[in-house]
Amino acid sequence: NSSIQQHPYDISNDTNTATVAAHTPDSSSVEVPATTKCAICNCINVDTQLRPCGCMFHGRCLKPSLHNAVGPPRCPIDHITMQSAVLAIPTVENVNSNSN
Q1: pTM over the 0.85 mark
Q2: Cβ pair 73, 66 in contact under 8 A
Q3: In 10 A of CB 48, how many CB atoms?
Q4: How many CA atoms lie within 13 Å of 27's alpha carbon, on the beta-carbon side?
Q5: How do residues 4-61 score in pLDDT, each as one tens digit?
Q6: What is the per-residue pLDDT for 42?
């Protein structure tokens, strides 16, 4: 299994390209709490953050709205034109605090 993850969809067209970064030390990704919910299905463990709006999704939930798009791809929630999609990495926050 390779350490580089492929994103499940391509959302590019002739003039606008949304890119998804692989999780490597020199790439762009964002860590999000594992409890972050998809804006479409409301389930946890999202894997995609749209830019510039910041909405969070599962790639599998976002894909149908992108395939049905007319014109530049837009966020299905707030309808802002997408500039990119970033790999979202769900993380479990450490709840142990020693701030006594």
Answers
A1: no
A2: yes
A3: 25
A4: 18
A5: 333 333 433 322 223 333 344 435 899 999 999 999 999 999 999 999 999 999 999 9
A6: 97
For residue 5, what are the CA distances in angstroms to 20, 44, 45, 68? 10, 19, 16, 25
Output the six-digit token pair for 84: 């990119």
- Those residues whose C-beta lies under 8 Å from the C-beta of residue 41, and which sit 6 or more positions away, are 58, 61
Backbone phi, psi, residue 61, to 5°: -80, -35
- Cβ distance 95 to 40 under 8 Å? no
DSSP-derived pairing of the beta strands 29-33 and 48-51: unpaired
Q: Which amino acid is at 88?
A: A
Enter the tokens of residue 82: 């997408």
